Each structure stands twice: as structure tokens, then as C-alpha cells.
Amino acid sequence: MVADMIRDQGSSLREALRLSGCSRRNYYYQPGKRTIPPDPYILEKVREEACKRPLYGTRRMAVTLARRLGRPINRKRIQRIYRILGWIEPQKTKKQLLRAAYDKRPKPTRPNELWASDLTYIHCGIDGWAYLFNVEDVVSREWVSYVFDRYATKENAILSVEKALIKHPDAVDVRLRTDRGPQYDSEAFRESMRILRVRQEFIAVNTPEQNGHMESFHKTLKREYVWTRDFRTFQEAAETIQEAYLDYNQHRIHSALGYLTPYEYLGKLKVTKNAV
Fold first, then answer.
1. What is the mean pLDDT of the chain?
2. What are phi and psi of 143, to 5 degrees?
3. Which of 3, 42, 98, 185 is found 20 to 30 A from 120 (Cα to Cα)?
4. What are phi and psi of 175, to 5 degrees?
5. Any idea what DSSP says for residue 106?
6. pLDDT tens digits, residue range 175-192?
7. Which residues contact 162 (CB under 8 A, 6 or more apart)?
8. Number of Cβ atoms within 10 Å of the Cβ of 115
9. Spatial distance between the Cα atoms of 119 and 132, rounded to a whole number of angstroms
10. In the chain, what is the greatest distance between 2 CA atoms, to the nearest angstrom?
11. Which region, left, alpha or beta, applies to residue 105 given φ > 0 means left and ψ of -120 to 50 means alpha?
């Protein structure tokens, strides 16, 4: 290249590009790899074998053709042919695979079958940040229990579940959906769940949508009860959280529940059950 020859004589790159009339972009351009067309003979053999074995993947096809032709056949060559023929589906991302596995989990059909739990942050004026651990029933939308404290400890996470079980002692073998936060992924929390006979299930990393009920609950809590206030102290925030807990369960209607409140929905189920 002319620019390189000028540089070899001691000129700077800028001077060499000016004298040679070459742009910096063209100087650094690297040509892409040349696409090698597939061997027509191999392509035809792949077509023939595929008619006999339409479910063969590239590994089996490579082995089969190698046996048939009596010479090694590289699997990558078969992959290129499959792509040309449109026989390879797009590879799923790790997130798609995790979501597919998550979607196979059984869907809850009754209250106290699946609870969701997580923590959120609330600013308390001069007292700084405090932490609200919540448990929500995925079916009835009941705000089952909470722990509001200045410390985000695993003990508070455990206590929130214990309070939920005290409120619903009939919740046997309930599933608890959480993320892998340090409180919920701790050995102490896991062991407590085993003792309490609560089956913990984790959502995948970086997939908050898999705990969508809790995400939606926290958004509603912040918009309707927290962000409308300007707390000066932790005590003020605690009093508001207690009021919100009562109002959410007793008075706030949910479209998913047929425009009933969580307690109205639970009461309706109880009446229906007793009538059977």
C-alpha cells in the first residue's frame, strides 16, 4: 500500500495518508471473509439423504455422508448447507431458554398455592432508607404480610414469610417465588423455608418479569401510597404502610378479580366452597 511505503520512509500516518490520497477509513479497512460456495455434489447428497432421514441433524448427517462417501465430512460444512437450504432454526438465547423453562412451571389455581415475595426501598426523610419485605398471593392478590425495617436482613425476609403462615395456617406446601437476592438466596432463608415446609422457587437472573405480580404490586404501592407522601421519619412511613396494608386488602378493587378487593374475593370463594 502506498501509505505504508511513505510511512516506512519516516513520515507520520497523517502525513502518509495526505500524500497518498488515502482516507483513514480505507487505510484501516479489513476485507471480510470470502464466502465459499458449497460443493454441488455434497449439496445434492445432503438432499438425497434428507429425503430418507428428514429428522437428522447436522451431526448425524455428517456421519452418515462420511460412511456413504468413504471420506471425512466436516460437520461445519453440513451446517453451512443446512443454512443455505433453510433447515436450521434460529438459536434461542439463554434468556429465551430460561423463560421457556419457567413457563413450564405449574400455574396456581387457588389462593395460598403460590406466593410471591421481594423487598423494596422507601425513603424516610431524616432516617434515611428503610426496607419493606412483602408477601403477595398470586391468585387472590392479597397482600399477605410485610416487614418494614431499617435493615435489609435475611432475618426480616424470613419473618415476612412466618407472618404470612401465621395469617394462613392452612397454607400447606405453599410455593414461594423470589429472586436470587442475598436475603432470599441465603442458607438461613433456605433452611427456614425447609423447616416451614415452604417450597421456594427462584426466577432466572435478570428477569424481573418472571416475578411480574410482585413488580406490579410494588409499582402500585409506590404510586398510590408512598410517592404521594413526603415522609419525614421512619415512624411516619411505618404508619402509612400499615394504613396502605389495610386499604389495599379491604378497599382497593382489582380488574383481575372481577373488580373485587382481595378480601371480597377470598370471602366469595369461602361462600362458594361452603355451599358445595
1. 87
2. -80, 95
3. 98
4. -90, 145
5. P
6. 999 999 999 999 999 999
7. 192, 196
8. 30
9. 5
10. 99
11. beta
Q: How many residues does the chain have?
A: 276
> CA neighbours within 13 Å on the CB side: how many for 180?
6
Whether residue 266 contacts residue 111, with contact meaning beta carbons closer than 8 Å, is answered with yes
Cell of 252: 382497593
For domain 113-275, the CATH architecture is: 2-Layer Sandwich (3.30)
Q: Model pTM?
A: 0.65
Question: What whole-number distance in Å separates Cα of residue 22 and Cα of residue 2?
Answer: 9
The cell numbers describing 26, all together, are: 480505507
Mean pLDDT of 249-268: 95
List the grid coordinates of 140. Answer: 387472590
Q: Under 8 Å CB-to-CB from 145, ≥6 apart: which residues?
A: 134, 135, 160, 161, 163, 164, 167
Q: What's the pLDDT at 184? A: 96
Per-residue pLDDT tens digits for 105-130: 678 889 999 999 999 999 999 999 99
DSSP count for the chain of H helices, then E strands: 12, 5
Say if residues 172 and 166 touch (Cβ distance below 8 Å). no
SS3 135: strand
Look-up of cell digits 413526603: 230
